[in-house]
Write a structure and sequence with these properties.
It is built from 15 helices and 23 strands. With 501 residues, the protein is an alpha/beta fold. Bound molecules: nicotinamide-adenine-dinucleotide.
Amino acid sequence: MTAGPPTIGHWRAGGPWPGGAERCGDVHDPATGRVAAQVAFATGEEVSAVVAEAVAAGREWAATSLARRTAVLFAFREALVRRREDIAAVITSEHGKVLDDALGEVQRGLEVAEFACGAPHLLKGAFSDGVSSGVDVYSLRQPLGVVAVISPFNFPAMVPLWFVPIAIACGNAVVLKPSEKDPSASLLIAECWAEAGLPPGVFNVVQGDRVAVDALLEHPDVDSVSFVGSTPVARHVYETGTRHGKRVQALGGAKNHMIVLPDADLESAADAAVSAGFGSAGERCMAISVVVAVDPVADSLVPLIGSRIEGLRTGDGRRACDMGPLVTGAHRDKVRDYVDAGVAEGADLVADGRTVEPDGEDDGFWLGPTLFDRVRPGMSIYDEEIFGPVLSVVRVASYDEALELVNANPYGNGTAIFTGDGGAARRFQREVEVGMVGINVPIPVPMAYYSFGGWKASLFGDSHAHGVEGIHFFTRGKVVTARWPDPSTRHGIDLGFPQHT
Ligand code: NAD
């Protein structure tokens, strides 16, 4: 009898925990198409048990000195550096992105851990001496308690790391629910926390699907939810979480436009469009999916993009390739259906990823880079988030028409403008209704000490991820007004509203 695939479990009480594994999901190796493992799906009761332990561990952690907490953060940063190749390898084997790209993802997550090492400075309050006779006022920031993080498949390390180190530095306990498609990176991150000396129960992982998510959203002892994923689920998470009295930040989907003006350096613009359109097989929330070519740019730009696509190697991310497979067979089929729809709807198919010859096994979830020209609003390839290696070119007559197109889109995650005109770029950065803007930069992902987040249907809630907004999201403010008795002054009774004199 041959053994079945291994089962990936949870992380509880400072170590791995198999759970009951009553229900499981398949985890694929996208480059071979084989089921590499099963992942246990937590039940509502299992989630509750983990939350209860996190409440107790979180209380002790919140009472731990800032010096001790910061020492653990620094040690976590070192552990991540030591384990980054292991984490990248596991991402490539479950997500499919090429190894270099996976390493880049870990690096961007690591930068948030480095930012969180500065929490003592960021948690400092203000102090006003003598606001009234003998009265001082000062402010504190205190942890929330237990915070939930729910992450998508496309960044199995970076997205959890956008939130977890900051939440822990602020004195919270965390329950992470990773994507069921690529659950293993979360467990390596958990090992890094254990190596760093984080007390058991402060960082926990529950694997699962919507059952685990809904259990977290409805649990009375979960104080906040940080979600990243598609817009319909983000809306559900925001509405359910806030209805249950939680603080929620829910980052959703995207349709990112890159405007190319006639005065742009077209060679650089073509490089940028290909890098940002097909990196990670287009499975990035900051991928460029639409190039908006302002007349007469398209006639020159489309052939430049097309010739670059011809040089891209699609294949197993463990080999020397530019682009890996899609995450699952179902997702590949969905993206391929969009390509069929684009053809049927009358867009010009310039490069057809359906005919790709990958450097990998036949059963991998392959789809090569695909380029459409003369795409218009109303076509499904324009209107919907595809989340795959499909780049559309929309031709417009002017800057104003380009801006109108971007601002009419329901999403507002990222955008970019390519131009040699500083005035046009400055006008764009002020006029565009999008949260993250690139000027001659195609994927404007902010550094860890700024905050990441979109507008409109790309984010529900008030706070963006990491940076100072992250510190604020994971803490509650408190203001203290203090007077210490001074035997030389006595105020007596005064029923009037307090005024400072
Ligand atoms: P998804 O919405 O399918 O899943 C995200 C998480 O929600 C997963 O943990 C999943 O298990 C859970 N989930 C799925 N369906 C659910 C349901 N019905 N109820 C409760 N929970 C549910 O997203 P995905 O396919 O994993 O990731 C891709 C999406 O994420 C894209 O839309 C992409 O744009 C978006 N994304 C956005 C950002 C951003 O910063 N705005 C970053 C990365 C990814």
